[in-house]
Design brief:
The structure holds two protein chains of two kinds. Chain A is about 35% helix and about 15% strand. By secondary structure, chain A is α/β, with parallel strands linked by helices. Chain A has a single domain, classed as TIM Barrel (Alpha-Beta Barrel), CATH 3.20.20. Chain A is globular. By secondary structure, chain B is α/β, with parallel strands linked by helices. Chain B is about 35% helix and about 15% strand. In chain B, helix 3 packs across helix 5 (about 155-170) and helix 6 packs across helix 7 (about 250-265). Chain B folds into two domains: about 15-180 and about 190-285 and about 380-465, Luciferase-like domain (TIM Barrel), CATH 3.20.20; about 305-380, no CATH class. Classes of the chains: A alpha/beta, B alpha/beta. Chains A and B meet through helix 1, helix 2, helix 3, helix 4 and strand 6 of A and helix 1, strand 4, helix 2, helix 3 and strand 8 of B.
């Protein structure tokens, strides 16, 4: 860890996110899990996992949805390739089960329909009472492309697909103004159609007409999380993401990476929340973390772009104490979900909370509220303000928002 | 192809109920104090849990991938806006235990690998209670919301849909039984060679995928289909488990049953293999007189003066605001050649002018005002069961006895309390007559509908020629 203290007041929000896919984040996690392999696909497993995360005091759960593996032998899953449920539907299932946990499914932007993704995420916001977020992904997988019969998108194309899909979602979420449903019995109108808007996006790749087929999400706009580096600096500066996931090659490099990212963003005029990414393997039930990791790596190596912590709960608490001074939050990727979550909830979160480093968990709070984001007005509501009435709405902006 | 090859249809003597939370049309009354939210999850939970208390087989959600329009703008007068079907159903899977969860999903604007995967997810998360109501669309108007735009010709839509469904079935067939490691000490998560790759190359799409999910407790999602044309009926007879039909009147329903049994046999399946559940609306009360009064009240709320004029405008293709809803039909002629009831949900074949002449004559003969005429046209009069609880229970018992239908798919006109009287009063009457379940037959939708477990398609299917 950098020995330099933060040179300005840290603005950490004290958020802890937990990735809770399958048996754990390590590809061989199922070999060390106390869950029977096939049971990770059951509703009971999912219910148990989200309730354990919520009761441990996590603020949010992410549900990963990695692309199809590009295996050397198509049609032959590798020894540790496990079955996977769609992440957005897992998040929806968790909606009525939880009260305070934000639910953040990963959803691809390259081989999916932007209109469907926008509608599904808006629906997730309804079934979770405004606790939904979106972890944006851009699949680099050739297998994902083949599954839907498309050419593989690479390089800058991934960044562009992600930005385009975010733009479609954000516009569709705004395409119903908040008060579009009027239920005016005297005129027989259920809707005020002046408060519905065609989005007419044409990005050169595809076009989307709109409006959405579901009213505006409860949060207005769902918080959008993206891995730092996926979106161009221009897209980030334009507000495409509300939070960036920041990775470093090692735990001690996270603080510097966060500081540098923060400085770059400030220069670009935007300040999304920063969430540090951390793989976690803890000592557990008399087994040293390093031994647990070595055993798992003996089956399949854990290749991940994230910093990795391997050690005791007390050491992790110290690391998180430092990182939380620099980051708005930390997302933990437990090597084996049941084993590592047990240690986290027993030893790490209580101590962090005792030190006053964690934001409170509030039943029924929206994810935007957790992130300290105000509920925005629809861009179309602003654009349709009569010229001159608001002063700040220029004719050009009004046309651009159409 | 089913392993059941019974050639004689045998009535089960039972009926089932489903609920269609349809949301976006004039059928849902939004003008009373009891009319709840169409989007809050609590409305969905309430309807689904009430239906489950009444041992309903299925909870349906509809889908429309473009907002209804009227004269070029979003339609203002009816309920509009609803959640994505599978997202809402995945949430309902967490708060229900037995009821089937049916998602209407489009074959034209989805990819087979993605849709099959999401339906598998719903099926696993619900413990084997998922179903897919297969719909097709070809119109470019809906396509304007999607990457591919309107790419499909009307004539190709069933060919396209069938290739889609067959691909989906192969995806659901891909995993062997017992493919997944029994314990953490197994060498592999999935047994070697236990997962089959699915490839399809066709005119409209190609798929090359190693499916990621095993079968569910009910093998694969149950398939519903609603097409009523000869082509649609044959499609259902070959592919579907349940037809969501438009034939609820007893004589008509019996004819429809005969027709479907013939088509099902021609498709090489058993006479009982395809279930039939017509769409219907129930307006019930303690006495027949009260039920009739209630029906008049419901109709007045469904079709107000503005809706009556707007309904005609859709066929006339022009504004008719100057006409008195309580007066005769407009004497001026339509300006459109083809008529469209709700743009996006299908064009009617009749020429608009011919239709207008016909309607004017009909209204004049019956002495109906615009509002009365439209109310009659839109009431789905032939799908409405109005009466006292005992009266309607007697009529439904007749359907069970004759085997005209396997059940009814009820569209409640009030959300979220619209099933309360059905569950509290009608269901016990049906149970007393011995024509309705007194408990769920099992945990899966397939068990509760009395459907056989599918036989796994053999590898030869992979090599069969494909056309779309």
């Amino acid at each position: 860890m950098s020995t330099l203290p933060p040179n300005d007041q840290p603005r950490g929000r004290g958020l802890l996110l937990l990735e809770l896919d399958g048996a754990g984040s390590h590809p061989a996690a199922w070999r060390a899990s106390r869950t029977v392999p096939g049971a990770v696909l059951s509703p009971d497993h999912l219910r148990g996992a989200v309730l354990a995360a919520e009761s441990a005091g996590f603020h949010a759960a992410t549900l990963s949805d990695p692309g199809l593996p590009d295996s050397a032998l198509p049609g032959q899953p590798g020894p540790d390739d496990t079955a996977r449920l769609n992440a957005l539907q897992r998040a929806a299932f968790a909606g009525p089960v939880t009260r305070s946990l934000a639910l953040i499914p990963e959803a691809d932007t390259v081989y999916t329909e932007p209109f469907h993704i926008a509608t599904q995420l808006a629906s997730l916001d309804y079934v979770s009472g405004g606790r939904a977020g979106w972890l944006v992904a851009a699949s680099p997988s050739a297998a994902d492309a083949a599954a839907v019969g498309r050419d593989t998108v690479r390089g800058a194309g991934l960044s562009r697909e992600a930005a385009d899909s975010i733009e479609v979602s954000r516009r569709l979420w705004d395409s119903w103004e908040d008060d579009a449903v009027i239920r005016d019995v005297s005129t027989g109108r259920y809707l005020d159609v002046d408060k519905l808007h065609y989005i007419d996006v044409d990005n050169g790749n595809y076009s989307v007409k709109g409006p959405s087929i579901i009213p505006r999400p409860l949060q207005g706009q769902l918080p959008v999380l993206a891995p730092a580096g996926l979106l161009t600096p221009e897209a980030v500066a334009a507000g495409a993401a509300d939070a960036l996931l920041v990775s470093a090659p090692a735990p001690e490099l996270l603080a510097a990476e966060l500081a540098e990212t923060r400085a770059h963003l400030a220069a670009g005029g935007s300040e999304p929340a920063l969430i540090a990414e951390l793989d976690v393997v803890l000592d557990s039930r008399g087994q040293a973390a390093a031994d647990r990791l070595a055993a798992l790596n003996g089956h399949t190596a854990w290749e991940s772009p994230r910093a990795r912590f391997v050690g005791t709960a007390a050491e992790l608490t110290e690391l998180l104490t430092e990182v939380l001074a620099w980051a708005d939050g930390v997302r933990l990727h437990p090597a084996v979900l049941d084993t590592d979550l047990e240690e986290l909830s027993r030893l790490v979160l209580p101590e962090l909370r005792r030190r006053g480093l964690l934001a409170p968990t509030t039943p029924d709070a929206t994810f935007r509220e957790q992130l300290g984001l105000a509920r925005p007005a629809s861009r179309y509501a602003a654009a349709s303000t009569p010229a001159g009435a608001a002063g700040s709405t220029s004719p050009t902006a009004a046309v651009a928002e159409n | 192809m089913s392993h059941s090859t019974t050639t004689e249809f045998t009535p089960s003597g039972q009926i089932q109920l489903g609920v269609f939370f349809q949301g976006v049309n004039s059928g849902t009354v939004w003008k009373t104090a009891e009319s709840g939210s169409q989007t809050d999850f609590e409305s969905f939970r309430r309807i689904a849990q009430t239906a489950e208390r009444g041992l309903f087989a299925a909870f349906f959600l509809g889908e429309g991938l473009r907002l209804r329009e009227h004269l070029g703008r979003p339609h203002a007068l009816d309920v509009a806006g609803r959640p994505d079907a599978q997202t809402a159903l995945a949430a309902l899977a967490a708060v229900t235990t037995n009821i089937g969860l049916v998602a209407t999903q489009n074959t034209t604007y989805n990819d087979p690998a993605d849709l099959a995967h999401r339906l598998s997810t719903l099926d696993l998360l619900s413990g084997g209670r998922a179903a897919w109501n297969i719909v097709t669309t070809d119109n470019a108007w809906t396509g304007a919301n999607f990457r591919r735009g309107g790419y499909l010709d009307h004539a190709d839509r069933y060919t396209h849909a069938e290739a889609f469904v067959e691909t989906a079935k192969r995806i659901w067939d891909a995993w062997d039984d017992a493919a997944i490691a029994a314990s953490a000490s197994s060498a592999r998560w999935s047994a070697e060679g236990a997962v089959r790759r699915v490839r399809h190359t066709g005119r409209h799409y190609s798929v090359d995928v190693t499916p990621r999910l095993p079968r569910s407790a009910q093998y694969r999602p149950v398939l519903f289909q609603a097409g009523d044309s000869p082509e649609g009926r044959d499609f259902a007879a070959r592919q579907a488990d349940v037809i969501f039909s438009a034939h609820p009147q007893l004589e008509d329903a019996l004819d429809f049953r005969r027709d479907i049994v013939e088509r099902t046999l021609r498709a090489g399946r058993g006479a009982n293999d395809v279930k039939i559940m017509p769409a219907s609306e129930f307006i019930l009360a303690a006495t027949p007189q009260e039920a009739l009064e209630k029906k008049a009240w419901v109709r007045s709320l469904q079709i107000g003066p503005q809706q009556a004029i707007a309904y005609l405008e859709q066929f006339w293709g022009r504004e008719l605001q100057g006409y008195d809803p309580d007066g005769p039909l407009p004497e001026i002629d339509p300006v459109v050649e083809e008529t469209s009831e709700t743009r996006g949900s299908g064009f009617h074949g009749a020429k608009a002018r011919q239709l207008a002449d016909q309607w004017r004559a009909e209204a004049k003969e019956k002495g109906l005002s615009i509002r009365q005429f439209v109310s009659a046209k839109t009431s789905r009069g032939d799908s409405t069961f109005t009466g006292s609880y005992t009266e309607v229970a007697d009529r439904l018992a007749e359907y069970a006895r004759t085997g005209a239908v396997d059940g009814f798919n009820i569209s409640p006109w009030l959300i979220p309390t619209g099933l309360d009287d059905i569950v509290n009063h009608l269901v016990p009457e049906l149970q007393e007559r011995g024509v309705y379940p007194t408990q769920y037959a099992g945990g899966t939708l397939r068990e509760n509908l009395g459907l056989a477990t599918p036989v796994r398609t053999d590898a030869a299917v992979e090599a069969s020629p494909v056309t779309a």
